[in-house]
Design goal:
Shape: globular
Oligomer: single chain
Structural class: mainly alpha
Number of domains: 1
CATH architecture: Orthogonal Bundle
Order of helices and strands: HHHHHHHHHHHHHHH
Helix content: 55-70%
Bound molecules: manganese (II) ion
Number of strands: 0
Length: about 325
């Protein structure tokens, strides 16, 4: 029997893992692998700096948007997408250290027009929606239909694109199965469903692209996650690839932390991670997990490997 204790350890591992990956990767964001090697040999410590001139342990938009979404879900965000959009607005008004163009455009549109869905445009296939969806996974752990509904609702505020939808849903389903203790083979099965439905995402052999385009991001994360066997190696592999390293670090940290648990995160990284961020994450995990008990829908409708719905079939027909 899975104990709640174990579930909580994995959930903490996933959420803290995401923040650690963000803080570790941000130092080398937008550098090439060669540039990273020239300066750091191997980048393996949380030291801050980078183009954002961060303090050691400071996180960026990836983690901050998760915290904003988590807070909104704990209010009434599961039922009211405006609560989520308002949380993004509040975050943007707090002068975040970084914000992606697609995120800024989407949040501004909501402020001006109060519409909850971005127009589907080819340039909205960035990784910005996928990187912040972990709180949804935790809050809907036993409820696939609520998971899909809330994931797509939070995503479409800024990113409305079939490739982003497909990746966001798949990464969340992988994380959910890891949190439930089903192991790496269950996560791999979800990844293979994605690749089968949308061959763009094929990641073996790794195609070598590391940008913020969601396909590049997913391939780079999968390569690191499926070719390492512990948290530290997974994160070091992914951030030393270069490119959008805070985001590949964050998503890899989310998966690896869910699989290996919070005790697998190196002490030297947790010690450095911003203590306010840690406190907020620890405060959210338990309460997000508890939300599913309040859900009106039956709690055991979760089925393994559900057919990926509508957004993915759109992706198959779109000429991207
Ligand atoms: Mn970032
Ligand atoms: Mn980034």
């Amino acid at each position: 029997m899975e104990t709640h204790f174990t579930l909580l350890q994995r959930t903490l591992g996933s959420y803290l893992g995401l923040a650690v990956g963000d803080a570790l990767g941000a130092t080398v964001e937008f550098m090439t692998a060669r540039e990273i090697a020239a300066i750091h040999k191997i980048h393996r410590n949380i030291i801050g700096g980078g183009w954002l001139r961060l303090k050691p342990g400071q996180v960026t938009d990836d983690t901050e948007l998760c915290l904003a979404l988590g807070k909104a879900l704990l209010r009434d965000g599961l039922n009211d997408t405006n609560v989520i959009a308002d949380a993004y607005v509040k975050w943007m008004h707090g002068c975040p250290v970084d914000i992606g163009n697609t995120c800024r455009r989407g949040i501004r549109r909501y402020m001006l027009q109060r519409t909850l869905q971005a127009d589907p445009t080819p340039d909205s296939a960035g990784n910005g929606a996928a990187m912040r969806n972990l709180p949804t996974v935790i809050a809907t752990l036993n409820n696939e239909s609520a998971y899909e509904r809330v994931s797509l609702a939070q995503a479409h505020i800024t990113h409305n694109h079939p490739l982003s939808d497909a990746a966001t849903l798949t990464l969340g389903r992988m994380t959910r199965r890891l949190l439930r203790g089903e192991g790496i083979s269950a996560a791999h099965a979800e990844a293979m469903i994605l690749v089968e439905c949308v061959p763009h995402f094929r990641f073996d052999p790794w195609p070598g692209m590391t940008s913020g385009y969601i396909v590049d991001t997913v391939q780079t994360v999968f390569d690191a996650f499926f070719n390492t066997d512990n948290f530290e190696e997974c994160l070091i592999r992914v951030v030393n690839r270069g490119g959008d390293t805070d985001t590949t670090g964050a998503i890899a940290g989310q998966l690896a932390g869910a699989l290996y648990g919070v005790s697998s995160i190196p002490e030297r990284w947790l010690r450095k991670l911003d203590s306010n961020v840690q406190d907020t994450i620890r405060g959210q995990c338990d309460r997000l997990l508890a939300l599913q008990n309040l859900d009106q829908e039956p709690s055991n409708v979760f089925a393994h490997s559900p057919v990926i719905p509508h957004p993915l079939s759109t992706a198959k027909t779109a000429a991207i």
